[in-house]
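In response to a reviewer's request, we include the raw inputs and outputs for one of the modeled complexes. The three entities were modeled together in a single run.
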Amino acid sequence: MTPHPRAELFLWAAQRVTAVFLAFFVLVHLATIVYAVRGGLTAAEILARTHSSLVIPFFYLFFVLAASIHGAIGLRNVAAEWLGWRGASADAAVSLVGLALLALGLRAVLAVAA
Amino acid sequence: MEHLQVDVWRGGAEGSYQRFEVPRRASQTVLDVVTHIQRFIDPTLAYRFACRVGMCGSCAMMVNGKPRWTCRTHVDKVARDAALTLAPLANMPVVRDLVADMREFFDKWGRARGQFVPTRTRHQEFARVDPRSSARREADAAIECIGCGICYAACDVVRWNPDYLGPAALNRAWTLQNDARDGAHAARLEAVSGDAGCHSCHTQMSCTEFCPKRLSPTRSIAGLKRESLWSFLQPGSRKP
Amino acid sequence: MMRPARNHPAWWAFLVHRLSGLALTLFLPAHFLALGTALRGEARLDAFLRWTDRPWVIAGEWILVTLLAAHLAGGLRLLALELLPWREWQKTLAAVAAGFAVVAGLAFALAR
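The model returned the following structure tokens for the whole complex.
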């Protein structure tokens, strides 16, 4: 029992679309990391940055959303090709992982933004 | 006289490698080696060849782990320490010894709708196709495939995904999508989409690496991905 | 059945992309949980950050940053190969992607 090819095309397209957004998010994140770790990293510095503007929590919100979708779809491919795990149970499992990533990520954004 | 140690797969899915000693000669091809074994040492060895000049693709098999045409593979180029290992084409069931069962390979060609669907009859004018048009150039870049199965044997996605149509079938589908005379574009695009189709290609490019005709199925498959994405985002924009 | 040979650049690019993606997906929950310690106050996050000052953690961070850069660069290469019209120079994209990953890793290592 396989999903309709149209659904599979949608997943493939979603993977690429989230990839484009993530390209931007990750570039910003990498630059931020390299800049921020200079001279050591403290919680005060991190929280000062994340509280400095509303743009930053929203940036991470969309980052988390895109990464959760992108990672889950990627895992679906790996499960199918390297574990031979396909079908409804595999789809359910990767969806759970995606939702877990989303939940943990949203919690993290709240932790540093609230 | 120098000899080659040649390990040859004997049997079907179950079997083992049998070692033969074959005299080494100048300008020898792997096909020469296999033929020597069958003619002078063990007549029960099963293998395929036809044209023996690199035109038909029948002699394709795994030579030291790489899918090649044996008639176009010089022993000097591939034999390390005068040793060769020969096996039937990967990703296909084994009929016997070095002969692979290519039925599924060709079935997938059909599932990909890799057949030309005409839109004119002989009562109408000839179709005029400009060879310089971008569509025809795309088709021409991929059209020389003779269905030898090497790309299919080289592909890891074929190995990991039993439904995957494979590089040859998808490559042929691409040539037909670029054929202005063909009447099945929409149906074919549907046939080559999804996890069994072009969207499972991971651009590993093993097909392109090993194709003896120097075709690039990866390129064709990328074309199918673009076309299907465009059709998905703008349904109805492509002519049927 | 003999497994086909895989020793060409595009295959390595695939493997790096897949393994880095897997590693990052496995790392993400830990990353989110670490940041989540801030829910219990700045001091908790700071305590965690002090814990990460160990050499093996810093080495791990460096590996992750490099993997992230590699996955990004490899992904951009794939988007180019799949969405842009096919050009021959695209073969060198794998090398460019690898170069970017190395540079990013280096920048992090020097900054940390």
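As requested, we also summarize the result in words. Chain B has two domains: 3-100, 103-233. Chain B touches chain C at residues 9, 62, 65-67, 85, 87, 90-91, 94, 153-156, 159, 202-206, 208-210, 216, 218-219, 222-223, 225-226, 229 (CB under 8 Å).
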